[in-house]
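Duplicate of #3305? Posting structure anyway:
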């Protein structure tokens, strides 16, 4: 999300990467929960990894038990808008009322005990006025620093190793890795994510990385 320059001027409410002094990284999963999420949760549990999930309100309403399960298993949940609409062209308050507030309600109905504190914009699209309305409502906006484009060509041969290699080539201390577990826009399950995580986690651990929830990268205070 480097192309949104205004974000760099707001270090307290925008998180694009974590503190680089510690060999830690955050895996983030967007657009879910979806059909791939149960197997992903199994993998994360076996691998003893806590992660962050940016869920849409629509998917949360469809799969409330998965929201409950991922909270119970120590993951955190952020707001990824109600319908995954592209925010461009919407007035800030109108957009907040249509996309942000309803998603918070859906997430609370699905089991979050308080309003989500983290927001990730659909497609990474957000303007300055929208950002300010989010910050005013107490949200931190979370971007990413490693994007292996796991949504691209999931049926291509070598897809899993290609995504894994892409993360390994770009990883750095304080990385926020962008991945997806929700069904794609054609309604297909993103089942490749499970294999990706099962290969990626041991490889990163082998490089001395620990896995944190992305909120642990927020500045204190
Ligand atoms: Zn998304």
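Output from current build:
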């Amino acid at each position: 999300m480097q192309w949104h320059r205004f974000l760099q001027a707001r270090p307290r409410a925008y998180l694009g990467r974590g503190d680089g002094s510690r060999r830690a990284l955050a895996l983030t999963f967007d657009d879910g929960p979806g059909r791939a999420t149960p197997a992903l949760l199994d993998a994360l549990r076996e691998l003893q990894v806590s992660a962050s999930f940016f869920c849409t309100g629509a998917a949360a309403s469809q799969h409330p038990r998965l929201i409950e399960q991922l909270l119970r298993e120590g993951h955190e949940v952020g707001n990824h808008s109600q319908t995954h609409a592209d925010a461009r062209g919407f007035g800030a308050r109108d957009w907040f009322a249509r996309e942000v507030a309803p998603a918070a309600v859906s997430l609370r109905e699905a089991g979050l005990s308080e309003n989500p504190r983290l927001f990730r914009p659909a497609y990474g699209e957000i303007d300055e006025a929208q950002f300010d309305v989010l910050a005013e409502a107490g949200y931190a906006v979370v971007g990413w620093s490693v994007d292996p484009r796991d949504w691209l060509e999931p049926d291509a041969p070598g897809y899993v190793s290609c995504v894994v290699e892409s993360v390994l080539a770009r990883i750095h201390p304080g990385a926020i890795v962008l991945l997806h577990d929700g069904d794609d826009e054609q309604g297909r399950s993103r089942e490749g994510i499970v294999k990706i995580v099962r290969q990626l986690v041991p490889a990163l651990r082998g490089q001395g990385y620990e896995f944190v929830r992305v909120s642990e990268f927020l500045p204190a205070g």
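Confirmed duplicate; merging threads. Residues 30-31, 80, 84, 122 surround zinc ion (CB under 6 Å). The CA atoms of residues 34 and 182 lie 4 Å apart.
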